[in-house]
């Protein structure tokens, strides 16, 4: 059962767009206090040079510090395959707890094998401060929030509802963008449809914030829509689309998609809560598995 939404709580939401990965990160402020959360923080990576950059994370840090806010949560909606997480970098400077869905353990087990991680890599989610279960409630200041398990894109995907705002991760895009792919290891198009159906059971007035946008048709990048707009106009699930139609569409579409450019570094870093793996000498290193994805 999905918990009740408090439409009377209207958090302030500020978006930060990363053009390298077309990711939107968010600072979400409790309307009645200085407490806030960060959703899906980005760390840039120049793959050709093997160099990290913290431009997006620094912008978020400057915003929080400039407004005198107190950071309580740094939330990952799922294990991202298209950008590296900036969560630990932000936590080191501002505090807060890093949280992700409890099914991160499934993702860690899957990709621990793909990347041939040794026994020193824990597959119990212990790299994160909080593992959310479906329906878990938590607080940002005085504002009550809850997490919804929404598998399909990945096993660990969650939508976080904060007052009248919901953060969809990759479960849904803007209405003219449709839905996320479901062909990564552990993904499932049928599960994705079921998850989307559950998200669309939220009240129509709920503001929905997406994690990615690509400006279909050349329109300006966007990130805020509503549950009502998704139900009526989403090109993949709006109107009368049924489960079998969605699965057939999604699987055919996914078969034509290339892998994200940063999937190999992103997964190695993000299953570790944003920490870059290190060799025996303590140097940051990444692996390139061959013919595994």
Descriptive report:
This protein is α/β, with parallel strands linked by helices and 293 residues long. 24% of the residues lie in helices and 23% in strands. The chain has one domain: Ribonuclease Z/Hydroxyacylglutathione hydrolase-like (Metallo-beta-lactamase, Chain A, 4-Layer Sandwich). The protein has a six-stranded mixed sheet with strand order 1-2-3-6-8-9, covered by helices on one side. Strands 10-11-12-13-14-15 form a six-stranded mixed sheet. A hairpin with a 2-residue loop joins strand 10 (137-140) and strand 11 (143-149). 45% of the residues are buried. The mean pLDDT is 96.
Please describe the structure with a list of short key phrases separated by commas or semicolons.
293 residues, six-stranded mixed sheet, Metallo-beta-lactamase, Chain A, 24% helix, alpha/beta
Summarize the structure.
By secondary structure, the protein is α/β, with parallel strands linked by helices. Helices cover 24% and strands 23% of the residues.
Series of secondary-structure elements, N-terminal to C-terminal:
EEEEEHEEHEHEEEEEHEEHHH
Strand content: 15-25%
What separation lies between the terminal Cα atoms?
35 Å
User: What is the highest CATH level, the class?
Assistant: Alpha Beta
Rg value: 18 Å
User: What sort of overall outline do the alpha carbons produce when their principal axes are compared?
Assistant: globular
Structural class, from helix and strand content? Answer: alpha/beta
Total domains: 1
What is the number of helices?
A: 7
Average the pLDDT over all residues and give the rounded result: 96
The CATH topology turns out to be Metallo-beta-lactamase, Chain A
CATH architecture: 4-Layer Sandwich
> Quick one: how many beta strands?
15
The biggest beta sheet is recorded as: 6 strands, mixed
In CATH, what is the homologous superfamily?
Ribonuclease Z/Hydroxyacylglutathione hydrolase-like
């Amino acid at each position: 059962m999905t918990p009740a939404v408090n439409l009377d709580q209207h958090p302030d939401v500020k978006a930060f767009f990363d053009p390298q990965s077309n990711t939107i990160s968010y600072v979400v402020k409790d309307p009645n206090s200085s407490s806030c959360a960060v959703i899906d923080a980005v760390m840039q990576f120049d793959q050709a040079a093997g160099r990290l950059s913290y431009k997006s994370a620094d912008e978020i840090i400057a915003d929080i510090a400039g407004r005198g806010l107190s950071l309580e949560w740094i939330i990952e909606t799922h294990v991202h395959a298209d950008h590296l997480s900036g969560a630990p970098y932000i936590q080191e400077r501002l505090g807060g707890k890093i949280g992700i869905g409890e099914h991160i353990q499934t993702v860690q087990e899957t990709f621990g094998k793909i990347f041939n991680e040794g026994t020193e890599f824990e597959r119990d989610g212990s790299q994160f401060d909080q593992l959310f279960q479906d329906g878990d409630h938590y607080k940002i200041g005085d504002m009550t929030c809850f997490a919804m398990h929404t598998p399909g894109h990945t096993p660990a995907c969650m939508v976080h509802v904060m007052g009248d705002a919901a953060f969809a991760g990759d479960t849904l895009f803007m209405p003219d963008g449709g839905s996320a792919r479901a062909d990564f290891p552990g993904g499932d198009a049928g599960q994705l449809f079921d998850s989307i159906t559950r998200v669309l059971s939220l009240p129509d007035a709920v503001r929905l914030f997406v994690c990615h946008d690509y400006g279909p048709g050349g329109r300006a990048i966007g990130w805020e829509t509503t549950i009502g707009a998704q139900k009526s106009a989403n090109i993949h699930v709006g109107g009368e689309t049924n489960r079998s139609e969605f699965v057939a569409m999604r699987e055919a579409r996914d078969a034509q998609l290339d892998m994200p450019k940063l999937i190999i570094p992103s997964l190695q870093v993000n299953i570790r809560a944003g920490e870059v793996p290190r060799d025996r000498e303590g140097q940051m290193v990444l692996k390139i598995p061959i013919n595994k994805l």
